[in-house]
Design brief:
eight-stranded antiparallel sheet; Rossmann fold; metal ion binding; four-stranded parallel sheet; alpha+beta; nucleotide-binding; D-amino Acid Aminotransferase, Chain A, domain 1; 14 helices; about 35% helix; ATP-grasp domain-containing protein; about 425 residues; Dna Ligase, domain 1
Length: about 425
Amino acid sequence: MEQAIVYLSDIPISNRSGTRWVQKLNDYNYKKLLISSVEEFDDQVGNYFDSCIRVKDILDFENLSEIIADVKSKYEIVALYAPKENLIEIGGDLRSKFGIPGIQKNQALAVRDKWIMKEMLHQRELNTSKNAIAVSENEAILFAKKVGFPIVAKPLNGFATLNTQKLLSNKDISEYFSNLVIENELLLAISDNRILLESFIDGEEYHCDCVVQNGQVVFSSVSKYLYNCMDIATKGSPPASIIFPKAESEKNVATRKISELNEKVISALGINNTVTHGEYFVTKDGNVYFGEIGARIGGADVMPPIIKNTFNVDMFEAMIDVELQKFVSPKQSKDIFTGMICLPQKSGEIAALATLKDFKDIDGIITFEVQRSIGDRLLDVKDTMTRSGFAIIEDVNYDSLREKLLTVYHRFFDLMVVEE
């Protein structure tokens, strides 16, 4: 029987942003089927897929099951890709129902349901926050009384720090539950009324991005956020991080501890044959705590480029390869720090924007991409996804790179003119 690959998507793969997710498929001689909620088969889609089925709802399990059953009657499905955060669970459900290799239903739950995730780690006695599930402010107040303020509240299966808040008092708890409205369409489609409560971990935030193949971490990188994700979403701090080169990461105590804990987390959750993006905290006394992990590419616009520049690992290609157990980690990497920073935006209609020439005094700029135009009307930022663009910069020194990234951010902000 001929072999096939199935790919679920809720973004256009025919534009530049979407194409990078699927380009690597052309290296493999399988029949390739795209199931999409946003596009139909055309010449551009045909560059990567043999056929495309347009569906109204990419999360309609019954409809997808009928489609997969039909495909399975004609082909041996060797891989089913569901790479976006909001598709991970349904991808696991479909693989388990139809006997398709890859992340299964139970594994998908372990990387999407944050209660299950944290509870499994507690069972292994790994460092993470104390947790509870709440559907009302009274339950949250009882949790806060037990663990002490501050606490963190977030959707049980959320992402991008959406609807995530640090709560300092009973009043904050009451306001959080009274004003809880999920506006993001992707999160709304997969959310229920349960809120995860966490004890607050006071520490600097890092992310660890990996490739896991046949039960082993075959590639791992550690990066440090300039500001914690909570502060980015709630205080307007610049979204930015810097990746540590291999030699520096191995000798740095904090990054070494993060890598070690990350491997234990991956083992505890049964994560396999996928890329991962994990969040970790390092406290002032040097202890490392797990935040959360996803079986996905982190920060699709901005994190893969810094990994690629320092380690020569393309996370989009790795995502395709590892599902087929074909990933090979490059042996060569650069002994250089690479950083990313998301460009800010202001509320209002854009009247003026900075361009690359406004930053010609800053060396090491690899990428400077502005995704807004004059006349665009923008809103305030309330998550870690919204941006006006981004810059990628390299430097041999961490502190120098940090200064360059923040200079770009603040200068871009100053040069952006908006009108009410």
